[in-house]
Amino acid sequence: MTVLAALNGPVPKAGVIALAALAALSLLGYGPRQRAGAMLAALVLAPVLLLADIWHSPQLAVIHRHPAEAAVGAVVLVALIAAVVRLLLRCPWLLAPLIVFALPFRVPIQAGGVTSNLLVPLYFVVTCGVLASVISAWRAPPAAPSPDGLSARRARASRRVPAAVTWLERLLAFYVVLYAIQSVYSVDFEKALQQMVFFYAPFALMFGLLRHLPWSARLLRRCLEVVAGLAIVFAFIGFVEYATKTIILNPRLVVQNDLHAYFTVNSVFFDPDIFGRFLALVMVALAAVLLYLRRTREQLIVTAVLAVLWVGLLLTLSRSSLGALLVGMGTLAALRWRPSRTLVPAGVVILVGVVAVFALPKTFGLNQGLNGASSGRAGLISGGIHMFAQRPGWGYGSGSFVTQYRREHPDTASQLAASHTIAVTIAAEQGLIGELVYVALVLMALFMLVQGARGDPARAALAAAFVALVLHTNLYADFLEDPVTWTVLGIGAALAALRTRPRPATHATAPVDTAVATGAGGA
């Protein structure tokens, strides 16, 4: 009871708001030192809030029983962080492939009585990146004052940052702060605290790191090679699962596979839909390379990789991921050619899909009704809309969907209580206020990513991947709770800002567009 009272008291709630404010400041800081200071403060505050939440959880019992061993482990961790920070100070560009490499890996950790699959490797990389950024910012000499006394705000404007990038950063910062404020009256504040500590704050820091990296065609290629290599490895793990009929993670999926005639794979991911989303987004990026490159050898390699990933995607049986892939490919086609040329093939694909659904209703689960065909998601959507109708203005508070839904539907199975449509989740939790910010954020991100993407394979891939993400998050789950969303937006913002700054084509700042002509953007 003491712990529960502490978590619902004013101190943790003030801490969440303070953490959100620091994350927002790291997005909006007008100078490297201001951003670095906010990032460092957020990096310190986040684990403090987390430890206050899980101090008495079973996962920390070993620390209470063996403090000496825990201290040794802490020393080893600090030494490892110091080594990686030193490496990043010598090779700043290495941060990007490290972040991309860490994106898929999750570690199951219990917090607040619930087991969550957390991105521990990514948190480690972000921590090292923040510390390296802080050291670099404070090592650099302060900028000399301008003769005409330009303020920091006008100095930033003089660097010609595109308005779309600036507004995207503002909307991201506003959404994070709004989420923290609405956690104060949430019916599940502990969930909101965990969302802020595990997702919003570290991902905002990651966005800032990616946004201010000196991106080049070579660096983009390296990141694509990393993510494509991971996708191939994960796909082959899925093949082994399918051949041996064994599942590495998720005991619940083992039970489901035993109850059905089909067999679903999840590779190193806990959820087949998340695995499918990862494969679909990688395929979209590789398809962009295939559409823009002219070298036969690289086209054959990319085609072979796409074939492997396509088989892996089919084995996930993730309809939402297949839909995301279709929409992503359609977006690529519209950016590569005239949009009108994509309407006919898109219409044919949709028509074939509709005919297949009505010709084979049992295959698609239509004989079970809409709720059965959607694996219970239709009921979740209607329940979320009902929650929104009860509190249309401000909702039930951040992180409250599962708790409130179970209150209203006590007979619902636990695995069916989590929302699978992000727009409905936001409406139920944050009301019309949060929904308007979400819509504005999506529209601004699309505007920023699409600008200049027609002749640039990297920006076209990012725009198509974001469109695919938006669709998938409204068919399955997560939006800003997914690090891939922040990664796409961070790189996209960096490339959008890079186009407005003419520079010599050096290794660190070569325009990305040159990759089209030279073939440097291949996988």
List keywords for this structure.
523 residues; mainly alpha; 2 strands; disordered C terminus
List the helices and strands and how they pair.
Layout: H1 2-7, H2 10-28, H3 32-54, H4 61-65, H5 67-90, H6 95-102, E1 107-111, E2 114-118, H7 120-139, H8 152-158, H9 163-182, H10 189-211, H11 217-244, H12 251-259, H13 272-292, H14 296-316, H15 319-336, H16 339-359, H17 369-373, H18 377-390, H19 401-408, H20 422-450, H21 457-473, H22 483-499, H23 514-518
Antiparallel strand pairs: 1-2
* Secondary structure tally, helices: 23
Largest sheet: 2 strands, antiparallel
What is the C-alpha radius of gyration, as a whole number of Å? 23 Å
| Number of β-strand runs | 2
Q: Are there runs of 5+ residues with pLDDT below 50, and where?
A: 1-7, 146-158, 369-374, 501-523
Mean pLDDT: 82
Bin the helical content.
Answer: over 70%
Give the overall shape, derived from the CA principal axes.
globular
Termini, distance in Å? 55 Å
Q: What is the spatial order of strands in the main beta sheet?
A: 1-2
Output the structural class.
mainly alpha
Strand content: under 5%
Element pattern in H and E: HHHHHHEEHHHHHHHHHHHHHHHHH
